[in-house]
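S1.2 Input.
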Amino acid sequence: MIEIITQKTDKSTDEICKWLLYYNFDFKRHNVEDFTDFSFYLGASQQKNTKNIYHRRGKLSTIRFINDYSIDTYVREETNMLLKGWEKIYKNDHQSNYIGEFNEEDQHNKLYDLHIAESLGIKIPATLITNSKTELIAFASQRKLITKSIRRPISLNSKGFTFSDIGTYRVKKNDIRKLKSHFSLSLFQEYIEKKYEIRAFFFKDKIFPMAIFSQKDTQTKYDYRNYNLETPNRCEPVKLPEKIEKKIFAFFKAKNINTGSVDLIVSAENEFYFLENNPQGQFNWLSENCNYNIEKYIAEDLIKNEKKENQD
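S1.3 Output.
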């Protein structure tokens, strides 16, 4: 049985399920919003385990909370460790087809991703992590800067006000002047003038890249995720240079993950720069804009592995 772990509202999963129905293959869909009856065997009964799983978003919901903070927190932590162990076992047993990255999403670190990319010979923007105004002034004296969140975009509701960020932010000299001598540890990067951005979706042994022409719109110039819904950025398929493809494959191998998205930019000098990796990034819009039919490709991969499992 093909098992799919996802969210109720995930459009990509809807499309994958449609293809599985088209090919008349049975599957179970577990939405993270709903309670899931879960069992996993080690030892003599391992043959009872499902071995063909696509983990799209979030994690399985296997807990019935009792509204006691201490007990619920303990049970949640125990559950997370069990589910992380379950994924690691499947990923390393050399038999199962477990696609997805709950572990990686939970412990995802953009700084480490930048380090890996640079170690593999992929250019990255000059980057500074600091809480020192003095260091920041020296860094900014040589280049234009942007800043962005390290973990996730900020969203605060406190003392009668709501605050959320705009993704990547262009740092100006006046912004630096307003800072105190020390501030919360923050990430700063050199702003690279770009020709276009690239979102590339990676799945096992294939890369689906898309060019995003965001630089001519002031709303999306620094971050295409500041979507202009009235006049969307032009997006189209793009062919990556072979050396860049090989380095992206090497990146995912180094990370030991089998799916995810990579954001790149192409500079005015046609240099490729790595920005970040998203282990559970959205890809439906990429699939639709480029006519890649990624959901069909994933469904067929699940079917291929299901047939193999049945033959074994």
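S1.4 Remarks. The two ends are 14 Å apart (CA to CA).
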